[in-house]
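FIELD: query
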Amino acid sequence: MRLAPQTSAVVDTGFLGLQKIHANTLMPKKRSKKHPLTKQDKAENKRIAKERVPGENIIRYLKRFKIIADRYRNRRKSFGLRFNLIAAFYNYEITEILEGL
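FIELD: result
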């Protein structure tokens, strides 16, 4: 998958090689036994985690329907339609919640 250079990628440490390919990547720093994290590093990791939370919550919601959690065993043509339908459910639910506030 290609990312536009101006797009900011906020990822976890599972994407270690992405920083070499995409310069605009935010990734938390890892600690090691010999090099513990400083307070500044911990604060930066916390800021990055706060940016990632909304996206992670959307993925969690989509996984509840098992369309991306498990292997998809139906026709490929229907995958996009079903995925868009689930995304519409999510958007509708978020809209209802926000209107209630």
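FIELD: remark
The chain is about 55% helix and 5% strand.
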